[in-house]
Write a structure and sequence with these properties.
Number of helices: 9
Number of strands: 4
Shape: globular
Largest sheet: 2 strands, parallel
Radius of gyration: 22 Å
Strand content: 5-15%
């Protein structure tokens, strides 16, 4: 009830609950502000801050507050959440947000990653839509827990030296079929590796862009529900 005795609206109730959930987090905000103010080589500087707690205690709300504080300090900010289900998706969202807020210099820093990621999406889309693609691969490519590596010659895919670091269980056969299909359809060795090992290929490009950006200004990356990726 309000002070006038009127029932609270659903929005007022939601705001009240969010505020109650956020109670006690002021120390976290102060810590975040202090960390932003420290030089990178300061012994007290922490580069990773982990927020934990049961669902509904205000972790997402605190991240939003972190974002507000970082923005007021003119830091570049990017946030990823449960909508990103893979490492390439997560890096792509972070790079896009940093490029949007950081202007031409940020766009240029991430251009090698952005271009390579676009090629990955294009080639993967073409392969998944190919009528010759192995049956039963719907949803497998983006979500299966596979590791495709360019290591020893064990289980070598015909036509390339990419090897399959084999997976346990029924995914092994599907992974092998997919790897062979990709190698057969794509003549470009670099693109074969890009499709089979997107995280391994794209991560160095993303890190290079991030380092270039962070050399000139502060960058804050926020991960909400990061365990999904």
């Amino acid at each position: 009830m309000t002070k006038l005795g009127k029932p609270l609206t659903s929005q007022e109730i939601r705001r009240q609950r969010q505020q109650e959930a956020f109670t006690g987090r002021e120390d976290h905000l102060d810590l975040f502000r202090r960390q932003l103010a420290l030089a990178g080589d300061d012994p007290q500087r922490r580069f990773v801050l982990s927020i934990y707690g049961q669902g509904g205690v205000g972790k997402t709300t605190l991240l939003r507050q972190f974002r507000r504080v970082a923005g007021s300090e003119r830091a570049l900010i990017a946030l990823t959440d449960h909508n990103e289900r893979s490492v390439p998706e997560t890096m792509a969202r972070l790079a896009a947000e940093l490029a949007e807020s950081g202007g031409p210099s940020a766009t240029l820093a991430f251009s090698p990653f952005t271009e390579r990621h676009a090629t990955y999406l294009k080639r993967r889309g073409e392969l998944e839509a190919d009528p010759d693609a192995p049956r039963g691969l719907a949803g497998f490519v983006g979500h299966a827990a596979v590791r495709l590596g360019a290591k020893a010659l064990r289980n070598t895919v015909p036509g390339s030296d990419l090897a399959l670091d084999l997976i346990e269980g029924p995914l092994a056969e599907q992974a092998g079929l997919w790897a062979e299909f990709v190698s057969r359809k794509l003549g470009n060795r670099d693109e074969v590796r890009l499709v089979l090992e997107p995280a391994a290929v794209l991560t160095p490009l993303f890190v290079n862009g991030l380092n270039e950006l962070a050399a000139a200004q502060r960058v804050v990356l926020l991960f909400d529900t990061y365990e999904n990726t």
